[in-house]
Amino acid sequence: MNAAPAASSRAACFARDYPIRFSHCDPAGIVFFPQYLVLFNQLVEDWFNEGLGISYAQLLGPRRIGLPIVRLECDFRAIGRMGETLRFALAVERVGGKSLTLALEASGDGVLRVASRQVLVFTDLETHRAIALPEDVRAALAAGAPAA
């Protein structure tokens, strides 16, 4: 396997370290690629709860606002192994009227393992139609997560 480039220098607006567990890995002990999407979703949930101060559970539950991914790009650069702790980082690239574009990455030991770009759309969970960004989300983004 070729050497992977160093982790991105993009300024992350939110980051967390997550241990790579047995449940994330295939029989060879490396992260099974769809598990990165599970971990990125965990990061987005943590960002809402801790970074933006908006309960992700309340958003989906009582408020009935969904946030599905409608566009997804992933570049897998290097493997992650069971027992490692990787840094997962999120940066806001764009805030639209009904959507967010996020740049996410996972790195460890200065090596970028995976980079993702995701477009998430706010939806009404009753109709599954796109809705405007909730005002509290827009205010939280304006206060602490500048868009490019």
TrEMBL record:
<dbReference type="Pfam" id="PF13279">
    <property type="entry name" value="4HBT_2"/>
</dbReference>
<keyword id="KW-0378">Hydrolase</keyword>
<dbReference type="GO" id="GO:0018739">
    <property type="term" value="F:4-hydroxybenzoyl-CoA thioesterase activity"/>
</dbReference>
<protein>
    <submittedName>
        <fullName>Putative 4-hydroxybenzoyl CoA thioesterase</fullName>
        <ecNumber>3.1.2.23</ecNumber>
    </submittedName>
</protein>
<dbReference type="InterPro" id="IPR029069">
    <property type="entry name" value="HotDog_dom_sf"/>
</dbReference>
